[in-house]
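Consider a concrete sample entry:
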Amino acid sequence: MYKVASASEYLVITGVGIPDIKIAKKAWVLPGQCCAIFDVSPVNYTFEVQAMSAEKLPFVLPTVFTVGPRIDDNASLLKYAKLISPHDKLSNHVKDLVQGIIEASMTMEEIFRGTKEFKQEVFEKVQLELNQFGLLIYNANVKQLVDVPGHEYFSYLGQKTQMEAANQAKVDVAEAKMKGEIGSKLREGQTLQNAAKIDADTKIISTQRQGEGKKEEIRVKTDVKVFENQREAEVAEANAELAKKKAGWAREAQVAEVEATKAVALRDAELQREVEMMNALTQTEKLKAEFLSKASVEYETKEIAKINGEAVRGLQPKISIWTNGDGGEGGAMKEVASVYKMLPPLFKTVHEQTGMLPPAWMGALPDSNNVN
């Protein structure tokens, strides 16, 4: 048949086909096999162990142990199934087992003052012995140690502790009172010291602030003065630059005025020269016209004279002109001499103006070095 264990139970199967035992939560139980169910939930065991300290003083150790099989280890579970599960877990079997293991090994003082350490030592010793049965101490609680009748060690020790506590309380109260009075005086002194220190710090900070304010005022005034000096320097530089420019402009104006005056003078001179040139040309043209007119008249007179002379020479006359040589106005040769004197200057002027030379029969240009 098919067997199933509850949450806190296990199946122990023995018999055909199983060399030792088989532990399972559910399994088929075959013919020739035997199946038993054991509970693995832990159980609380209360002990009042008659123990003895290292000083050979008897005492009662009230303890409560929560013990159960170790289910997280298969080997421990097998040990429990073989050795403990056949017995009733509420019987004295496990209780006698645990009680026989407990043994005190600490001094009374250590037990009384260090229950936690004593508990830990007892726990370790008991657990070491229970391992061979597959049992685990889930919890252990050591209660207040109790004297054995006729041996009131813990009572006296407690009274001693109480007296020590009371005396210590009185000392603590006196010390607290002393500390309170001293603390009060210290607080008052510290209050006065702190007030004086705060006043001194306040004065120092006030002086520092005043000094900083004064320094800031001086710095601002200095910056203002520097700025004013810079502005004055910039203004002076601008004035100097303006004066330079004005001087340059005045110099340029003077130069322009001089140049204008010179230009006017030069233009005046040019115009004067042009006027003189025009006058010279006009005079030249006038002289040229006069000289040409006279030359033409003289020339025509000379052709005519020549023609007449040729004609007379063909007749071969014998003509002689006589003068008295006084050069008077009525002399015949004076007019002829005047005409001949005018010819050289006329020829020169014509040559300069037109580049034309007189005919060879009329004579040559006078030498400029010999003209009177």
About this structure: Residues 40-143 form a domain with the Tetrahydropterin Synthase; Chain A fold (CATH 3.30.479.30). The first helix runs from residue 74 to 83. Helices lie at 74-83, 92-101, 108-113, 115-130, 153-315, 332-354. The mean pLDDT is 77.
